[in-house]
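Subject: Protein record for review, amino acid sequence with backbone structure tokens
Why sent: The fold of this protein is of interest and is recorded here as tokens.
Enclosed: The protein record, placed directly beneath this head.
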Amino acid sequence: MSIRFKLAATMIVLGVLIVTVLTFVMASFHRNAFVTSRLEASQNAAQAIAIHIDGHLKGLARTTATLATMPALKGSVLASNAAYDSLDPLEREAEIDRLDKLWRAAIDAEDPFLEEFLHNPTADLLREQHNIVDDLFGEIFLTNRYGAVIAATGQLTNFAQGDEYWWQAAVHGGEGRVFFDDRGYDVSVGDFVLGVTAPVYHDGEVVGVLKNNLRILDLFGEIIEHYSPLYEPGSVQIARSGGLVIWEPEQASLSTQVPREVVSLLGTETTAAILADGDGRGSLFAVSPIVSTTALSEQAFGGNEEAADQRLGNKGENWVVVLRTPGEVIDAMVQAQRRQFLITGFISIFVLSGLTLLFVSRSAKPISRLVELT
């Protein structure tokens, strides 16, 4: 074998060894850099989704509060209050209790007693608002200062609302505030519901309460789909900080939990980490709180775990966006880049070896002729 071929073969072998060693050294370094970059990108994506959802919640709060200022609604509240103010406290309590029993005894919305509340001018006005986005609004209803229903778009579970936690949260000791009611599954709506409750004011005094129960899940789906280029092939969930999942694709609301290892991340901070998931494999998790559901919000947020008209309500938790990228997805991305590096390296070796062989061949010709002459 000629020296030029030996030289080329030696360069190829050495090149393959160097590229292989460098590939695995760089792959280890690159994986760490890639995971760090992916953690940051996932955290930013989770935060972007949380901010978008938070913006919609704030908009729903403003819409409900604005609706509570409508003169027609305020007029019906003041008229109802005047009627109940004419009774002494014991008579008023007895009257509300009597009407509550009649309400609960009503079989359906066609009951003549319910007609008075479901088809009066105020109820018709609320229904007009409901019909604007009927796939979002579950029901809207109005009460006076004593919690007695004045008007509603549909049959509610009860007439007397004054002892409900959400009603008292909206009145807020007479100061009034918007309250988000994470009801869980609402019996009268037949769906997962977020209630938005706003006080009705007159001359700076809380004189009534308006409640808007919303089917919020489709809105979540639309928002999250908008961000799919940022998180796919990962997945997104909306969960309570206790771990119960409110929304995820192709799953019934409140039917699944985030992996218990992830619950420690859920809270009021945006963060990301590699954790073992329910399958025992490491996955990347990024979480970001939805601010309107935390103590940092101007609006109050809460719920009641269980009641006659609801199930699986909030237990003092906030909502969190949870973004998961499975470990095998990250490994596949790293492997793909490793293969690309190897292929590029080997092609470079063979190209350089060919050029070297050509150079050696041309350079050796004068030496060969000199040897022949001697």
